[in-house]
Amino acid sequence: MDIALTRPSGDNRTSLGIACGIGAGALWGLVFLAPELVRDFTPLQLAIGRYLAYGVLSALLIAPRWRALRAAVTRREWRSLAWLALAGNTLYYILLSTAVQTGGIAMTSLVIGFLPVAVTIIGSRDQGAVPLGRLLPSLLLCAGGALCIGWQALAAPAEASLLGLACAVGALASWTGFAVGNSRCLARLPHVSVHDWNLLLGIMTGAQAVLLIPVTMVVEPVQHAADAWARLAGISIGVALLASMLGNALWNRMSRLLPLTLVGQMILFETLFALLYGFLWEQRLPTGLEVAAFVLVVGSVLSCIGAHQRHAPSRADA
């Protein structure tokens, strides 16, 4: 059954959307580890590897339906896909990888942790959205959790460089634009399934990766052994499959099930899983501040869900 034709309603709709959001966060959290696993490669090379794999996989999967789908997608949608691919994939991943490699996972998680605040504030302007005043407790909890996450990193300026901080802020702005734009594109395109939309986005992102190959060949000379390239290829394919294919599919599904104000809160799970994977990678237990962050972030999500349950829904099921 086409995923776009499944139309749960009421509490089932919200529960399914939240489950999809948790799954997407679990898979997207892996992208914070990738730059640490292949530190010999630059952020641009990491982005090219990941999104070439994403583009090839998308092209293979969409090939049987290409003619019919191409007729259903207008020039406006292709322009939207080009912008979304840049904001949510290519540019975002280059900035995030740079932030992780120069500032560390904790500092990057701090800044990216503010994504729910930014998206929720924008979403509160939508017609029929939960009033911003009712979301204030959730937003305050979210901000408190994000501050706890990165407090230790900011207290160590030698590790949290200005370049890393600037790139993390840039990644925050880039992905905020993607989250809002992608949600609104899906809302106006009910005839395109979330699976096909994800594959189209993959093809556009892959095309951008191809255009970046000459750039990296000029500015970043190839100085890696064969085993290093094999490791990069394996990680790129793995991240493309788990984060770009499956993670994006779950996120797009969620975007059709939940209002934008609640979509913003689901981004918190990416931060939580990124921290969990970081603890496992560093083989340590979380500190007191990090435990406090987990509690505050979970409280933020539960508070936002409660605000939506108390708010009479005014938007029709899509």
Structure report:
The structure is a single chain. The chain has 318 residues and is an all-alpha fold. The chain is built from 14 helices and no strands.
What letter string, H or E per element, gives the SSE order? HHHHHHHHHHHHHH
* Extended strand count: 0
Task: Report the radius of gyration as a whole number of Å.
Answer: 19 Å
Largest sheet: none
- Tell me the distance between the termini: 17 Å
Stretches where pLDDT is under 50 for at least 5 consecutive residues are 1-6, 314-318
Give the structural class.
mainly alpha
Which percent range describes the beta-strand content? Answer: under 5%
- Average pLDDT, all residues: 81
Number of domains as seen in the coordinates: 1
Q: Give the number of helices.
A: 14
The portion of residues assigned to helices is: over 70%
Q: Give the overall form.
A: globular
Give the helices and strands, then pairings.
Elements lengths: L9 H19 L5 H4 L5 H20 L3 H7 L2 H29 L1 H8 L2 H9 L8 H23 L7 H27 L5 H26 L6 H32 L2 H7 L1 H15 L5 H23 L8
Helix pairs in contact: 1-11, 1-13, 3-5, 3-10, 3-11, 5-6, 5-9, 5-10, 6-8, 6-9, 6-13, 7-8, 7-9, 7-12, 8-14, 10-11, 12-14
